[in-house]
Design brief:
The protein is mostly beta strands. The protein has a 5-stranded antiparallel beta sheet, with no helix packed on it. The chain has a 4-stranded antiparallel beta sheet with strand order 10-9-8-11, with no helix packed on it. It is elongated, with a radius of gyration of 18 Å. The protein starts with 5 loop residues before the first strand and ends with a strand. One of its GO terms (molecular function) is exoribonuclease II activity.
Amino acid sequence: MAKRNKKTDKHQSRLNHRQMEITGTFYRKSNGKNSFAPDEGEEKAVFIAERNSAHAMNKDRVRIALYAKRQDFSAEGKVIEILERANDTFVGTLEVTKRYAFLVTENRTLANDIFIPRDKLKGGKTGDKAVVKVVEW
């Protein structure tokens, strides 16, 4: 097992070059307090800040790097690779502009709206409900 992360001062830590990496499932929360559940036999749940989520979506299978654990704080990590997407189809409301369109999903746990090329709208207009399959991440 690789070394854990080094502390740089009382309230900060940084990743080691030989960081501890684990795989598991990412859980996105609408308040930005995302979590990670390691595969069985691994460590306890890990906090993943929004800035460290690498655009992972709810229930994606990911690999994370663990930060050094600070005293009296829960474990924290950073998504370094998305191994498998949990979903590629989303439901929401279309917003169409002159140059582009996007889908505002009903599920508020998606970090970003989904961009849709105008030539793929198939007659959709602003306010229409739509089902979109993501073909490129």
